[in-house]
Amino acid sequence: MGLSTHVLDTMHGKPAAGMAVSLYTTQGHDAVLVKQFTLNADGRNPDGLLYDTATLRAGTYRLVFDVAAYFRACGVKLPEPAFLNLVSLDFGVADTTQHYHVPLLVSPWSYSTYRGS
After folding, report:
1. What confidence score (pLDDT) does residue 1 get?
2. pTM of the model
3. What CATH number corresponds to the domain at position 41?
4. Inter-residue contact 72 to 42 (CB < 8 Å)
């Protein structure tokens, strides 16, 4: 089980390969960087799970996706400042025996997420 993420570029209809992502643990307004990574060709962490079952702890987390830099790298002309720059998703993990999958569907103007399986 554990924690994973996946990003789909809904503007181009493909995985968001090359997008930079940061993972933090949070407590109130404080955040501690756990890892930074660049999404692979499938739009996923190249190392697999962000946390496996043994290391995932109940608590709150934040994933930060560098959306504007990704779309600019894809050749999309964005206004300055971009409508979406960094997309931050704050979420909680209550039961570490379950899998927490946090997908992001994103364009330069909108995004959605949900708890996947």
Report:
1. 83
2. 0.97
3. 2.60.40.180
4. no
pLDDT at 11: 98
Q: What pLDDT band is residue 16 in, cutting at 50, 70 and 90?
A: very high
Number of domains in the chain: 1
Q: What is the DSSP string of 23-79?
A: EEEEETTEEEEEEEEE--TTSB-TTS-SB-TTT--SEEEEEEEEHHHHHHHTT----
**pLDDT at residue number 117:** 85
Nearest to 70 by CA among 116, 23, 24, 8: 8
Domain that holds residue 79: 2-113
Measuring CA to CA, which residue among 82, 78, 75, 71 is closest to residue 106? 71
